[in-house]
Fold this sequence. Notes:
There is one protein chain. The chain is of the alpha/beta class. It contains 19 helices and 19 strands. The protein has helices at residues 2-14, 22-30, 46-55, 102-114, 135-146, 158-172, 175-180, 198-210, 230-251, 278-293, 311-327, 347-363, 371-374, 376-384, 397-401, 403-406, 418-423, 429-443, 451-462; strands spanning 17-19, 34-36, 41-43, 60-62, 72-74, 80-82, 89-91, 97-99, 151-154, 184-189, 195-196, 214-217, 221-222, 257-260, 264-267, 272-274, 298-301, 331-333, 344-346. The chain has a 7-stranded parallel β-sheet with strand order 6-18-17-14-12-10-9. Strands 2-3-1-11 form a 4-stranded mixed β-sheet, sandwiched between helices. Helix 1 (2-14) packs across helix 9 and helix 10 packs parallel to helix 11. The longest helix is centred in the middle third of the chain and has 22 residues, at 230-251. The protein is globular.
Amino acid sequence: MLTLHRATLALLERTGVSVDSDAVLDLLAAHGVRVDRQRRRVHPNEEHVRYALEHIPRQITIYGRTDAVRPVILNGKTTFIMSGGASLRVHTVDGNYEAATWQHLHQFNILLDALPNVHMCVNQVDPTDEPRDHFYRRIAAEMLITCRKPLLFQVSDATDVNAMLEMGSVVRGSRAELVARPLFMVGLNAEPPLHIPKGVAEALLATSVAGLPLSVGHYGMAGITTPNTIVGTVVHLNAMQLVAIIIAQLARPGAPVCYTGFSAVGNLRTLDVASGSPHSLRIMLLATALGRFYGLPVYVAATSDAHQPDPQAACERAAQVYALAHAGASLIQGPTSTMEQFMLSSFVQAVIDNDILEYVLAALTLPEDTEEALALEVTDEVLTDAWLKDLKFAGHLHTARHLHETQWQPCCFDYNNLAAWQRAGALSVAERATATARDILERHRVEELPSEMATELRRIATV
């Protein structure tokens, strides 16, 4: 990791990062960062990096709308799963491919609310059926109204940030309460190679000053927008993370920033992204290790390039989630049906992914080694009590007390024998997931905000 860190410092010294915001350039220059005004590039040094890493928090907490919802605590100790996101197409429960709509967004919010292994939500789809004026603000309003879970909001500029701050303050009751118990993290995206557009730079500044959690992605495509090597791409990604952290800490020491390590390789035959490839996973694993080297919570993505619920989708999802969670990623976005280079979302795959998530997260959970769990006394009783001769451990109360540790009731995976499976209709995983998705969409009810509050959020979103 030290080699990558030093290479990043050399890249910042030699090439720097371009920033299209006079306000950010002024901030950096005022704190001694070398700024090339003509080329609009910044060149922070090791001292600036050290200052930023000394002040950035090592833990970020994002809360649900109510205390009944589990908060997402990003600190490198636990892996949380986030939905999304922002697909332009939808694979419906009927198997059709449709352009994403606001109705699809609402349906996904219902489905994701019901899936227990989704801990945080970003808009699963980007609706395409209405004009896109104030688009991200309107998305934020709908997510606040129809989602109880912690959220991530995309923004285009500082005016979006200010509108979302106002919306969050309405829900929380005050700006101070929103900052103390944030409902959302702001998600920004730079432009590889090594460029922060004006809107993104000023949104970064506004979010940092406000004290809300944020992330700045640098979604490179190795061989196209970043070097065609794993380490070269990670050094580019790391340079962007360090510059974003420096800006945030100079704007407000202690501003919460999540190290963002998602990236991928380019398909050099088509110039598309290959987001589900093993080499994309290698980039994110190395980025995760580097973020953890700095002691920061890391935010990555697990997606698939499959076009429908199939073995490719399952393999890519399971492999990515397992590897990234095992590596110490704090937040993983996308294992809720995100497919086809982030362009497609599937209701059926979302249900399958929920089972995959539960499988992986359970497998990575370390067992207790208490006296009760070791069951030495229980073993003696089973081997000496005549009443337990036939049922053995299945007849002992100890087994009932620990059902949660070894028994699993998935939504669509099947662990029955062949005869039982055939009696139940011999349904495939996708067929069982389809039935589950239909049932949730028909029966599940989401606790929405009161109508007066919802009206106010929609008003703020369109101002």
